[in-house]
């Protein structure tokens, strides 16, 4: 077999460049073979759709209606009513907007911090690398949930532009700034191997700037693990918001979030258990669906593991 | 190996130093500074606040404050009445000599407060962790040996579910089930208490009944996580040649799995457990809050509510030291247990 055949490709083995072009399609096809991931995608999509459509509910998420307080689940109030007589389902749906938004923004913030740090450390190496990695280590050695509480407790007292007291952005920021370390480690590791590749040398020889090499040539090849990690971090961020709000350091009522709904329930759940059951189910569903999506993505980006699973790889 | 450990210990000191700066800056840049939460409820008179400020050295620039927080100020003279003449010696020993200051809330030394709560957290967390391992190891082994069986499917699903259940929600659910719904058939009382540690001189039954719910709540997540890890660790080892050799020499399957394979599969678990050791110090804030467990987590939560900064700082710094040392322990154990791993000297 000559080299030429390998370059041109054969029908069974498509040309490497062709499969490159279709990378997204390949990942998607492998993702679709993961039943759990499809289930997760459907459930998570439904959750988002429901929270977006919260306004369809005939009830207000904040106006109290004391005569109807603590009503059990019924056809009028599917999830019952809370201590103020507000329809719990409506509150949960509006709370979902907040909880999911906090999760998304927090992951975006940790991506914005972690990816550049990892890229710079991995690309330039040397002194810069060791300084950046020591900072990463320092953040990694703080007890995560405890620092989260400390930061939230401090920021609860301030009211500066951008960081309004207990706003969605403030809470997301606090969660995000404490969870970027995995990203910087992942990206750095990828950069360390990729920067030695011939194609990077070729780009450099052609006069590409560092920025162009980092953004255009190396980063796209490191994107797989970052996406997988971001998915898993989304679930983590949702659970962190819930825990924080549960303790009273997160989103403050009357704005509902899944965490502070559970926190409100704490006083009454012995007599009215549905108050605690339903918000928790939403947190559980969103996290388990996100985790399944992450698992599917991991397999999709790592074809060998997937092939092993379905038994095609010997 | 010794050189490696020595180098890591030096790194630990550097890292803790860096962390202490970050934490110190954080607390001191907080609005109103560290004194803002002093004496909750009773507002300090301005002149009192001035005296306190000078005594704590808060009138000095931040870097100097950091130094006296770190190594104390008993070797300097402090100007307590503000007349420009230093008239008394400083009273702080600094955290390096174990003086983490006084709790704003109780006015007791921070270390005494921690010493009181620490045993309760060790008690709860070590039982939780031990139980989690006892359940997780057999589950992990079985689902690896019978990969893709019904059992494996159930265990894997359970593991996914277990990792997704927020522990505080699980705690509330368990209280609903075991305190509200289920009753003791003889006395008609709730089956299990909804929280708190047992009282003074408890009977064994009493201690156990108070432990069940918090331990179950905490263990579920760990079981889910450990069992999944043991499964994949076993799966990596089961196809290896040395097991085939053992089988070829006539070892029974039981012997191969439980003696030859398990010993190596457990190596990563040992490191994983070592990495989770810090929780034995910091405890689980949410679980201790729900079950009113008088441990470190609840202490920290109360301190955060009242912004009791000396206490918060102490728990964070000691917690960070635990984390860093556990990381080192994990690495050392790994090298000791797995002869293939050698750290470059």
Task: Tell me what the structure shows.
The complex is a heterodimer of chains A (314) and B (345). Chain A is mainly α. Helices cover 69% and strands 0% of the residues of chain A. Mean pLDDT of chain A is 83; it is low at 306-314. With 345 residues, chain B is an all-alpha fold. In chain B, 67% of the residues lie in helices and 1% in strands. Chain B contains 13 helices and 2 strands; from the N terminus they run αααββαααααααααα. A two-stranded antiparallel sheet of chain B has the order 1-2. The mean pLDDT of chain B is 82.
TL;DR?
The complex is a heterodimer of chains A (314) and B (345). By secondary structure, chain A is mostly helical.
Oligomer: heterodimer
Order of helices and strands of chain A: HHHHHHHHHHHHHHH
- Taken as a percent bin, the fraction of beta residues of chain B is under 5%
Pick out the low-confidence regions of chain B.
none
The SSE string of chain B, one letter per element, is: HHHEEHHHHHHHHHH
What global shape of chain B is seen? flat
Helical residue percent of chain B? 55-70%
Q: Please work out how many helical segments of chain B DSSP would assign.
A: 13
The largest contact between protein chains, plus residue counts on each side, is: A-B, 44 and 45 residues
Estimated radius of gyration of chain A: 24 Å
- Biggest sheet features of chain B: 2 strands, antiparallel
Give start-end ranges of low-pLDDT stretches of chain A: 306-314
Percent range for helical residues of chain A?
Answer: 55-70%
How many alpha or pi helices of chain A? Answer: 15
Topology:
The complex is a heterodimer of chains A (314) and B (345).
Chain A: H1 3-8, H2 16-21, H3 23-32, H4 35-52, H5 88-124, H6 126-140, H7 144-155, H8 168-177, H9 181-194, H10 198-205, H11 210-218, H12 223-247, H13 258-268, H14 274-301, H15 303-310
Helix pairs in contact in A: 3-14, 4-5, 4-14, 5-6, 5-8, 5-9, 5-12, 5-14, 7-8, 9-12, 10-11, 12-13, 12-14, 13-14
Chain B: H1 2-29, H2 46-56, H3 62-71, E1 77-78, E2 88-89, H4 110-145, H5 150-164, H6 167-181, H7 204-237, H8 241-248, H9 253-276, H10 278-282, H11 285-290, H12 296-305, H13 309-337
Antiparallel strand pairs in B: 1-2
């Amino acid at each position: 077999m000559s080299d030429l055949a390998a370059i041109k490709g054969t029908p069974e083995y498509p040309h490497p460049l062709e499969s490159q072009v279709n990378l997204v399609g390949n990942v998607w096809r492998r993702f679709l073979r993961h039943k759990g991931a499809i289930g997760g995608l459907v459930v998570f999509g439904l959750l988002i759709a429901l929270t977006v459509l919260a306004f369809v509910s005939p009830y207000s998420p904040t106006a109290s209606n004391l005569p109807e307080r603590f009503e059990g689940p019924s056809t009028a109030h599917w999830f019952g009513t809370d201590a103020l007589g507000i329809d719990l389902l409506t509150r949960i749906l509006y709370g979902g907007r907040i909880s999911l938004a906090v999760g998304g923004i927090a992951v975006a913030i940790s991506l914005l911090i972690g990816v550049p740090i990892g890229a710079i450390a991995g690309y330039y190496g040397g002194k810069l690398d060791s300084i950046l990695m020591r900072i990463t280590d320092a953040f990694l050695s703080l007890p995560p949930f405890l620092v989260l509480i400390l930061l939230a407790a401090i920021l609860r007292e301030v009211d500066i532009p951008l960081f309004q007291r207990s706003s969605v952005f403030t809470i997301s920021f606090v969660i995000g700034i404490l969870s970027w370390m995995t990203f910087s480690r992942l990206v750095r590791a990828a950069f360390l191997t990729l920067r030695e590749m011939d194609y990077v040398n070729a780009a450099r020889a052609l006069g590409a700037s560092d920025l162009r090499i980092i953004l255009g040539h190396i980063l796209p090849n490191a994107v797989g693990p970052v996406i997988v990690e971001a998915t898993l971090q989304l679930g983590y961020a949702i659970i962190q918001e819930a825990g924080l709000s549960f303790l009273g350091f997160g989103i403050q009522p009357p704005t509902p979030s899944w965490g502070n709904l559970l926190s409100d329930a704490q006083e009454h759940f012995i007599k009215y258990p549905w108050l605690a059951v339903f918000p928790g189910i939403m947190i559980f569903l969103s996290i388990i669906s996100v985790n399944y999506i992450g698992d599917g993505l991991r397999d999709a980006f790592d074809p060998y593991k997937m092939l092993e699973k379905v038994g095609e790889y010997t | 190996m010794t050189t490696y450990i020595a180098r890591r210990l030096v790194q630990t000191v550097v890292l803790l130093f860096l962390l202490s700066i970050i934490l110190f800056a954080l607390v001191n840049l907080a609005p109103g500074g560290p004194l803002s939460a002093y004496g909750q409820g009773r507002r300090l008179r301005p002149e009192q606040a001035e005296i306190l400020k000078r005594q704590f050295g808060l009138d000095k620039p931040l870097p100097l404050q950091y130094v006296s927080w770190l190594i104390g100020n008993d070797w300097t003279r402090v100007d307590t009445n503000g007349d420009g003449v230093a008239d008394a010696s400083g009273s702080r020993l600094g955290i390096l000599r174990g003086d983490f200051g006084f709790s704003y809330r109780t006015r007791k030394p921070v270390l005494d407060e921690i010493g009181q709560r620490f045993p309760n957290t060790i008690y709860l967390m070590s039982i939780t962790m031990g139980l989690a391992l006892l359940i997780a190891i057999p589950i992990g082994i079985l689902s690896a040996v019978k990969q893709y069986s019904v059992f494996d499917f159930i265990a894997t699903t359970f593991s996914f579910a277990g990792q997704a259940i927020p522990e505080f929600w699980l705690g509330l659910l368990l209280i609903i089930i075991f305190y509200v719904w289920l009753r003791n058939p003889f006395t008609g009382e709730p089956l299990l208490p909804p929280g708190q540690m047992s009282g003074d001189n408890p009977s064994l039954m009493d201690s156990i009944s108070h432990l069940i719910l918090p331990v179950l709540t905490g263990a579920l997540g760990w079981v889910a996580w450990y069992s999944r890890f043991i499964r994949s660790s076993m799966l990596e080892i089961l196809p290896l040649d040395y097991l085939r050799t053992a089988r070829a020499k006539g070892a029974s399957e039981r012997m191969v799995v439980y003696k030859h394979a398990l010993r190596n599969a457990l190596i990563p678990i040992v490191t994983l457990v070592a990495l989770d050791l810090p929780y034995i110090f910091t405890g689980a804030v949410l679980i201790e809050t729900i079950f009113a467990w008088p441990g470190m987590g609840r202490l920290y939560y109360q301190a955060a509510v009242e912004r009791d900064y000396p206490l918060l700082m102490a728990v964070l710094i000691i917690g960070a030291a635990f984390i860093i040392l556990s990381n080192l322990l994990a690495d050392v154990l790994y090298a000791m247990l797995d002869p293939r791993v050698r750290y470059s000297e």
